[in-house]
Amino acid sequence: MRVSVCILPDRPFPEAAPLWRRAEELGFHAAYSYDHLTWGGLPDGAWYGAVPTLAAAAGATSRIRLGTLVSSANFRHPVPLAQDVMTLDTISGGRFVLGYGAGAPDADGIVLGQGAPDTGWSVKERGGRFRESVELLDRLLTGAPEGRPRTTFRGRYFDAIDARLEPGCVQRPRVPFLLAATGPLGMRTVARYGASWAVTDDAELPKDTLTEASTWAGLAQRLEGLDAACEQEGRDPKSLGRTLLTGFSPLPTMRSAAAFEEVAGRCAELGFTELVVHYPRESGPFATPAHVLAEIAPAHRGAARLP
């Protein structure tokens, strides 16, 4: 079980840099950050861009993997996003992971004039945009079959005309995709293109129905759907990683080191391969005892640091 951390882009980087360095010192597998224009959990607070934040984090660290959790087609077109991904992979020396999802009908889904949450893109259209954008990102970052670093693509939602991406990613054939999805089409997209699948620990269940028991049951059901998608796509389910982003359900993951070990053990039994906790904040969302982070860190638990 790999253990990673998510650091919100909610403070100037000179203040945030020690957090990224600390995550590396503690031996966490990866450090992620949210990629939103704004986030409902901190509607009035400071919020910085994910791409420049991760570029700065790459300069402040040397071993830990870095990534978005997650970017989306809500406001990112695959062509400029692919160039940013290639650049981040270069700056980090091949440590970048692209976390990517369909996005939610929240502020990011309306800020560019996409329509109000109840009148904008339907669930079906959001799923279609996800599938098409992942396919285009894969083509752009992998390169054309004939070896030319240019891609032409005409889809229902996205176009790319002779899009140039040179010199390509440090990681070959491209950076790994950590894909977030829960619907049938999205799951099949994960099975086809993903290195790992990402899901929040509430399994996107209605908040008023969440208990510890319903959380575990919901996650087990999602995992069954993922296995079915792998079967449909002809992929060995064991070849696909499973990443759980915690902090959205009643699970007491960061209450104490003992609680973390209990949750992590249950996750391992279900088949998860990576557990992501949020870097403790002093107040508001993800406010947890700061000492717990060090107590659950791989370096403290005796796990080997991963490159």
Chart the SSEs and their pairings.
Layout: E1 2-6, H1 13-25, E2 30-33, H2 50-60, E3 65-68, E4 71-72, H3 78-91, E5 96-101, H4 123-142, E6 150-154, E7 159-164, E8 177-180, H5 184-193, E9 196-200, H6 212-233, E10 241-245, H7 257-270, E11 274-278, H8 290-296, H9 298-301
Parallel strand pairs: 1-2, 1-11, 2-3, 3-5, 4-5, 5-8, 8-9, 9-10, 10-11
Antiparallel strand pairs: 6-7
Defining key terms:
single chain; 307 residues; eight-stranded parallel β-barrel; 9 helices; 37% helix
Descriptive account of the structure:
By secondary structure, the protein is α/β, with parallel strands linked by helices. Helix content is 37%, strand content 17%. It has helices at residues 13-25, 50-60, 78-91, 123-142, 184-193, 212-233, 257-270, 290-296, 298-301; strands spanning 2-6, 30-33, 65-68, 71-72, 96-101, 150-154, 159-164, 177-180, 196-200, 241-245, 274-278. It has an eight-stranded parallel barrel, surrounded by four helices. Strands 6-7 form a two-stranded antiparallel ribbon. Helix 5 (184-193) links the parallel strand 8 (177-180) and strand 9 (196-200). It is globular and about 55 Å long. The model has no long low-confidence stretch (mean pLDDT 92).
